[in-house]
Amino acid sequence: MSGVAAPRSSEPSARSARLTLLTASFGTLLVLVDYTSPLTTLTPTAASLGAGLTAQTWTLTGTLLGLAALLLTMGSAADDFGRKRVFGAGAVLMLLSTALSAAAPNTGIFLTGRVLQGCAGAALLAPSLGLVGHAFPTGPARIRATGVWGAAVGLGIAIGPVYAALLEKAAGWRAVYWVLALLSAVVLLLTVFGVEESRNERPRKLDPLGVLTLGAGASCLIAGLAEGRYGWGRTMVVSLLVAGVLLLAAFVVVESRIPEPMLDLALLRSPGFVVSCSGALFTGLSIVGLMSYLPTVLQKSLGQSPLAASGILAIWSGLSFVAALQARRLATRVSAISQVAASLLVCGIGEAALYGMHEGDSWARLVPGLAIAGIGSGVLNAALARLAVASVPAHRGSMGSGANNTARYLGSSLGVALTVTLVAQASSSEGPAEATALGANDAVLAAAALCLVGALISLWGRIAERRAERAAGEDAGPAAVKTAA
């Protein structure tokens, strides 16, 4: 049959499967480290390059632009033209783009490197789960493997800010990117010598209109969200947001009219696929968005140093890493969709527990909320990784990963913009530090509410899934009786 996965005999050996998991997880970790590094190096980087406020915003947002614009495209290309090929190309581009940022003589070249790092991240992230899905057959081995991949997400977020703060203090901000370039070379070597190629037996036709409308739409939307932090009513901001929405609507129309779309819209009838994407969207919107800005809040309102702030954040991200590794123990008891719903609810409870910040508070009062949210995030990452592969046909695993991660990073961009806006709008007669704390309180309540919305959507998905299973069982009953007769 055309368009199906290769026979099981072509799958990697146990040793090759382990190397594939190591490479895919290391590449994923590298992308997250690269994304989070500027959280603690933004001030010295901006001072060295003479970057203004807008440029500082794009230092944080540039990678999101490349990620969200190309993730689904890279996932589709990986399925059709080779997952190893696309992943390796991502490693090469990550090496070149981090070296470009490290050597940048001015802000423009540095930001170009950051956007290209997002493009490289898309080429690494999108095929990663497809590689894992090909290497590990459905069952306990795949559940463990996707848990490891989900743990790499949490570990990357935990390591990134601390790694960057320590290295910047020891050798300057440029060293952060030179070391990332070196690590990219390691990923490339692992890919070349440790990963077997996998692709569809029959590559589909290219979808240039889909690539154009999705890439341009996501780029306009993220650019509008980034610029909106300095005033949502400006003509440029409104124009970018409207253009983004219209282009994404055009993408849906294009995908519904061509015979071999990049994103099969029929998958939206699958509760698992809907929860995979909506859960990832609300993860970015309500969790990644808030936690990405939390170190800044800790520095401005609680008086923490950049290194201390990243260490406090590591309570959340470190527990996320541990919980993702242990999430496999839930697989035989709780469905992936139920795990997404419960995890989002737990994350919301943890975020709500952060409420009540004031200037000069002890960071210790944040520990319970960060711990609860970290455990929820870890189970959530593992469950979403499992769903991203399981909710699509076997030969479309990278597309499922691309769709899942596109939703995550679009949500992250919107979540960061929402958090920054709520913090910036707060005011206090006691000064800017107290105003930042009060704004952060508004942001954590908004994030907790969004977690609840995401949990309710996932709960609907679980109900729809059970109805579908019940209906399938009823249809199979008469057929089974007839066959037995």
Automatic annotation (TrEMBL):
The keyword tRNA processing is annotated on this UniProt entry: no
Annotated Major facilitator superfamily (MFS) profile domain residues: 20-466
Cellular localisation: Cell membrane
Pfam families to which the protein is assigned, alphabetical: MFS_1
Membrane association type: Multi-pass membrane protein
InterPro entries (UniProt xref): MFS, MFS_dom, MFS_trans_sf
Residues annotated as signal peptide: none
Highest taxon above the source species: Bacteria
Assigned keywords, A-Z: Antibiotic resistance, Membrane, Transmembrane, Transmembrane helix
Transmembrane spans: 17-35, 55-74, 86-103, 115-136, 148-166, 172-194, 206-226, 232-254, 266-294, 306-325, 337-357, 369-389, 409-428, 443-461
Protein name as annotated: MFS transporter
